Amino acid sequence: MDNCLFCNIIAGKIPSACVYQDDKTYAFRDITPAAPTHVLVVPKAHVGGMSAVDELDDATLAACLRTVKKVAELEGLTNGFRTISNCGDDARQSVPHLHFHVLGGKRLSEKMD
Ligand code: AMP
Q1: pLDDT for 2-47, tens place per residue?
Q2: Global confidence as pTM
Q3: 13 FRET partner, CA 20 to 30 A, in 29, 42, 74, 109?
Q4: How far is the CA of 7 from the centre of ligand 1 (A)?
Q5: Is the minimum distance from the CB of 89 to ligand 1 under 6 angstroms?
Q6: Per CATH, is 5-104 categorized as 3.30.428.10?
Q7: What is the mean pLDDT of the chain?
Q8: pLDDT level of residue 112 (50, 70, 90 thresholds)
Q9: Do 64 and 85 form a contact (C-beta atoms < 8 A)?
């Protein structure tokens, strides 16, 4: 998708700090980190968000979660981490390409909202 920010990051047209990638997924540092570790995990295939995951094949969907775990390992998050995927307006999703925030490196807030 030419006009998708994360598709352009995956394609290398917009710079990013890559943490990990494989054939199906890309993980890079959030530009506005909310925790010492704040990494975004995205499928390389474009899908708008969680409400559209039926458009993704199961292997890619599973790969996203495996990449979340891989990122936690690479970042040394042995004491825990949080994974969030905002979907739609009420959740304040700002980039319409499925992504999983991986947050850690400190004791995170109890609040989820
Ligand atoms: P969300 O609000 O859940 O859609 O999350 C989108 C995230 O993308 C936000 O946390 C932004 O800080 C992050 N973001 C926006 N532009 C960039 C960029 N160019 N590189 C890395 N992260 C970005």
Answers
A1: 899 999 999 999 999 999 999 999 999 999 999 999 999 999 999 9
A2: 0.98
A3: 74
A4: 12
A5: no
A6: yes
A7: 97
A8: confident
A9: no
* Secondary structure of residue 40 in the 3-state scheme: strand
Find the length of the chain: 113
46, 97, 99, 101: which one is catalytic?
99
Residue 38 has which token pair? 């704040």
Map out the domains of the chain as residue ranges: 5-104
Pocket lining: 92 vs ligand 1, CB cutoff 6 Å? yes
Q: Rounded to an integer, what distance in angstroms lies between the CA atom of residue 45 and that of residue 42?
A: 8
Question: How many alpha carbons lie under 13 Å from residue 14 in its C-beta half-sphere?
Answer: 11
Tell me whether residue 15 is exposed, middle or buried, using C-beta atoms within 10 angstroms of its C-beta: 0 to 12, 13 to 18, 19 or more. Answer: exposed
Q: Which of 63, 28, 19 is nearest to 45 (CA)?
A: 63
